[in-house]
Amino acid sequence: MSRRTSGFARQADNNHAVIVAAFKQMGVSIVDLRLKGGGCPDLLAGFRGRDRLVEIKRPGKAPNATQEAFCAAWKGAAPVVVRTVEDCAQLVRLWLS
Q1: Domain that residue 69 falls in
Q2: 3-16 burial, b if ≥16 CB within 10 A, otherwise e?
Q3: Model confidence at 66, in pLDDT bands (50, 70, 90)?
Q4: 4: which DSSP letter?
Q5: Res. 59 pLDDT band, cuts 50 70 90
Q6: What CATH number does residue 29 fall under?
Q7: pLDDT score of 11
Q8: Pairing of strands 43-47, 4-5
């Protein structure tokens, strides 16, 4: 039986560990938020004084309704969806520009 938080299973996507490792390899600080629930994105990522909430999704998958509602209500920068290591690199390049 899976552990549930706020009525939703908070199981990590199968690429979660790969994405976290890639960000860390690139020098990004990571706080894992996936157990927070309530549509909160999976990670808080920080690099060179900039922070972003990051939602990890498997390729071909989209945020669910609860995650979309969180994003709509969030007053900070819009969370970023990453699916691949290349998506991680693209976010780091954006931070460097």
Answers
A1: 4-96
A2: eeeeeeeeeebebb
A3: very high
A4: E
A5: very high
A6: 3.40.1350.10
A7: 59
A8: unpaired
